[in-house]
Amino acid sequence: MGKPLYLGLLAVLLVAAAVGAALLFFGGFDRDAGAVHTAAPMGTAKPTPAADSPADIAAKRDLLALMMAYQGQIAGVEKGDDGIVCVVMLSGKRIVYDDGREKTFEQKLADADLQDMMEQEYPLGDVDGVREGNLDPGRIRSYALFEEVYGGTEKAVRANLKSVALGRGHCLFNANNGAAAQLKKAFKEISALIDNEPGVSGFVYPLGGTFNYRVIAGTDRLSPHAFGIAIDLKSDPRDYWRWATREQGQGRLTEYPPDLVRALEDNGFIWGGKWAHFDILHFEYRPELLLKARHFVAPGETVSPWYAGYPETADVMEAVAVIDGAWEGR
Description:
The chain has one domain. It is of the alpha+beta class. The longest helix has 24 residues, at 3-26. Helices cover 39% and strands 12% of the residues. Strands 3-4-5 form a 3-stranded antiparallel sheet. It has a 3-stranded antiparallel sheet with strand order 8-10-9.
């Protein structure tokens, strides 16, 4: 090989090597895709997502509480071009988070979206009196969600019922979403409480009832008892706002054992004694409201990241990624 030809080939090889090194350094090689990514111009900052608004933070935190409370029931979250956010159930049914309509309290009771249901903060800890106005966290219910999770007809609900031993007999409760299992766990704690404080038994037994496919008194709306997710403990004439005065309800609240309430709240049940329209014997399986309460952020408050306060476990971070993906159009 002649010397000029040798030098020419050597020059070509050196140029090719230089180009390859530059691409690898500045562009980065994707071993999975087998391709070279185009590098950003020197000095250009990588774009960062826009900060979440307080409204977005509130919506995302509600959705996170729902996804963690109904694991295995919610398949995903979607946000349309119109900004409407939906929860996607395992069946494929889409349930609107916020329909954007202004509603009265009565309209929310009758036709709640998920945001209406999650709007009122459930108060953790002891209460010292009947609440005012329409502060009824838990009385506003998304029937679309309940029907998807617990059964859309009486026949479907009945197929999901399980007999649960509760210390002094058995009751029927919905096995879906862990409701029956959590009731059993709560009553194990209540039995231990009664062993230490026998007087608590007088607030529990005889039980008022669990599953009963009926409407709420004075309405045409199904009771949570119709879904097999509520239990009434021992009844007292002062328990219910429709047949007792506020003063009578106040007296009953003053007597009620806080440790009994805690045993049920710790297992996902909210208490009707924390409603302005009080229902003191009533406990209802609503884990989403208790999750929100335990990680509460006041309306309008900004936190970063938006899921601050939640443990960064694998299941939480998977749900966070799903929610962020909906906002980013992924």
